[in-house]
Amino acid sequence: EIKVRDLCWLVGMLRNAPLVEELSLALYLDCVPDWDGLFKDCPPIRHERLKRFQLKGNAHTDLPALMRHVYPKESDFSLDASIEPHLGARGLIEDTAAINFTQSFCPQLCRPNDRAFTISATRTDITEVAIHSGPILDDPVAFVSRDARQSESKGGIDLSIAVVSRRSMWFPELVEGVPNPGCIEQLYLDIY
């Protein structure tokens, strides 16, 4: 079981890297860390030069709690956040974890300069949803598959959720949580 002290190195690394432009954290944990306790002696860490921020984790990682302590400047950054099942983790991602994730990250979608919005969803044994909001796209179909996307969507927000559940109780939270829907000029939905 991971204790808070096992992740203390992360706080020091983040605090001592103010010039970082690309930050990628993939944390697949077996238990939920106390992020508030870990960052209790540290003010929120802001990376003024951050251009691309990638967060990956499972239900135990609690990415929304981590994001409260580490966040980029106010605008003009790309965010790629994903929550997914991980073979090494105990338990599966349930609707409650997906709801927490969508409630925390949906406010990042459709920022004032974002005019394109895409949702791609598949439903097999694992429900997978990929969402993108950002500037107008030359080809919105290029954003259907996470693997097929351009390597860098400048200023865009990418969220993906993979949930072992057929109920999808979190999907209404996602749809209702999108701010500024009236600003969307380009909409692409691929749900099957």
Describe the structure.
The protein is of the alpha/beta class. It contains five helices and nine strands, in the order αβαββαββαβββαβ. A seven-stranded mixed beta sheet has the order 1-3-5-8-7-6-9, covered by helices on one side. A hairpin with a 3-residue loop joins strand 6 (116-123) and strand 7. Residues 87-92 and 146-152 have low confidence and may be disordered.
Chain-wise SSE layout:
Elements: H1 8-15, E1 22-27, H2 35-38, E2 45-47, E3 52-57, H3 63-69, E4 70-72, E5 78-83, H4 95-105, E6 116-123, E7 127-134, E8 157-163, H5 171-176, E9 186-191
Parallel strand pairs: 1-3, 2-4, 3-5, 5-8, 6-9
Antiparallel strand pairs: 6-7, 7-8
Measured as a percent range, the helix fraction is 10-25%
**Whole-angstrom Rg:** 16 Å
Q: How can the largest sheet be summarized?
A: 7 strands, mixed
Task: Choose one word for the global shape.
Answer: globular
With strands numbered from the N-terminus, the spatial order across the biggest sheet is 1-3-5-8-7-6-9
Write the H/E string, N to C: HEHEEHEEHEEEHE
Number of helices: 5
Count of β-strands: 9
- How large is the share of residues in beta strands? 25-35%
**Distance between termini?**
38 Å
Structural class: alpha/beta
- What's the average pLDDT? 75
Contiguous low-pLDDT stretches (5 residues minimum) are 87-92, 146-152
Describe this structure in a few short sentences:
With 192 residues, the protein is α/β, with parallel strands linked by helices. It is built from five helices and nine strands. The strands form two sheets. The chain has a seven-stranded mixed sheet with strand order 1-3-5-8-7-6-9, covered by helices on one side. The protein has a two-stranded parallel sheet with strand order 2-4.
